[in-house]
C-alpha cells in the first residue's frame, strides 16, 4: 500500500502570491519585507495572528522564499527556554548567513502565544531582548494575540490573518482537484469550503479524505462517508468496551476514519453506562480507573492541538483504547449494545444555532448603528441589552432591531420569554416600521410624555446609541470581568476527560483594559453568556 502525502503539505504555497485570500495581510507583510531591503528597519518583528489553518506559517516561509532569506525556525515542540532562544535566535539574529544568499535570515517563532509554559519560562523575556538587538527579521506566529505580553506586542507590527472566506477557497480547491485528476460534482467544493469554517487546511484535508479511492466525487459521497463512518465507530467502541485485547482495540481504532479527538468523546459518553454494575448507581472502580486513562489521553490531545504535533496522537490513542480495556475488571453485558453518540456534539449543535442567532442579532445591531458585525457583537450588544432593561426604551429597541421573541430572550440573557419580555415584545409590535402606527424611529406620544417628565437631562435613545467605549479594539475574553465570551471560546475543545493540561489556556489576562473600566458592567447574563 502506498502512503499518500498529505495534500495540505503537498500544496503548501511556495510564494506569497499563492497564498489564498489575505490580500491586505500579504500586502502588509510585503511592505515590511521591503523595509529590510536597505538595512535594518525600525520595526524588526511582526506577529502574524489568527485561527489555525489559515496560512500564517505558510506565509512566513513563502515570504522567506520570495525575499531569498534563510529560515531559522523555533517550534513550540522545541524547548524554548530563555537560554535556547538566546542561543538559537540570538546568534542567528547577529550572524551573517552561511550561504550569503541575501545576507538575511528570517527567524520564525511558532506559537508565540504559548511562551508561558514551564518549558518556555523566561522565553518571552528572551524574545524581547532578541528583538531589541537583532539585525535580522523576526516573525512571531500566534493564534491568540492576547496570549502575547503587551511589552512584546509593543515591539512588533501586528498583522491579523482573518478566517478565509468560502468563496476564496473554492477556486484553490478546484486547482488542487484538477492537479489530482479529480472530477468534482456540482456543489461539492462549495460544500467542503462551507464546512471548513474559514480553515483552509481543514478544507484541503476534507477534500483528500472524501476522494480517497475515487476519481470522481459527488455531494452524496459526503453523506455516505458519514454513514459508513458511524457504523465503524460502533464496531470500534464495541471492541473497546467488550474486548479483552488491548492490541485489537488499538488496531481497530487505527482503521477508524475519526480522529482520537472524536473517539475520546465516544468513550467518555458511553463509559459510565458500560462499566457500571448491574442495578447499582455506584461509580465502580473500573469507571474511575478508565477515566484516569482518558484524562491522560486528553492531556496528549491538548498538546497536539497546541503544538500541531500529530505524532502524539498515537499516545493518546493508546491510553484511551488500551487504558479503557485494561480498566475492565470483568466483562459485562451481552447481546446487542447501543452506544450513544457524544453529547458534546449535541451541545456543539445547540451552540452552533445560538451562535447563528448571536450573529443575526449582531447584524441587526450593526445595520442600526452603522457599525461592523464584530464591534456590534463584542461591544454594542451589551449597550443594547442594557437598554432592554429599561421599560422606557425596551419596546422601541425591539422594534428598531426587529427582534423576534427568541432573539429578545438571547439578547437579554434570559433563558425563556418572561412575562415582562412578552409585554415588551407585544408593545414593540405596534412600533415596528410596518405597523399602522408608523416606524419606531419616532418615539410614540405616550412614551414621549413619560420621557419628558424626566427632565431635559434624559438621554434620547439615539444619543445612547452613539455612546461608545473609548477604545474600539475588541478585548480578550480573558480580560473581561463580566465573564462574557464573544467567540464562545469557553466551550472546551474536547470537553471529554476530566483532566486538563496544566499548560493549557493562554495568559490569564489579569489587567483590565482601562477603557473597559469606564463601562460599569453588571454581572448579568447577556447575549454572550453561554
Ligand atoms: N491561505 C492559504 N493559502 C494556501 N494554503 C493554505 C492557506 N491556509 C492554509 N493553507 C493550507 O493549510 C496548510 C496549513 O497552513 P499553515 O500551517 O500555514 O496554517 P497556520 O495558519 O499557520 O495554522 P497553525 O496556526 O495551525 O500553524 C498549508 O500547508 C496549506 O496547504
TrEMBL record:
The subunit structure is:
Heteromultimer composed of small subunits (RfcS) and large subunits (RfcL).
Pfam families noted in UniProt: AAA
Stored Gene3D superfamilies:
1.10.8.60, P-loop containing nucleotide triphosphate hydrolases (3.40.50.300)
- Name-wise, this protein is Replication factor C large subunit
Protein's job: Part of the RFC clamp loader complex which loads the PCNA sliding clamp onto DNA.
Record NCBIfam families: PRK04195.1-5, PRK04195.2-1
Sequence ranges of Basic and acidic residues compositional bias: 447-456
Q: Which gene encodes it?
A: rfcL
Q: Which family does it belong to?
A: Belongs to the activator 1 small subunits family. RfcL subfamily.
What lineage does UniProt assign to this protein's organism?
Archaea, Methanobacteriati, Methanobacteriota, Stenosarchaea group, Methanomicrobia
Q: Which InterPro entries match?
A: AAA+_ATPase, ATPase_AAA_core, P-loop_NTPase, Rep_factor-C_lsu, RFC_lid
Q: Which GO terms describe its biological process?
A: DNA replication
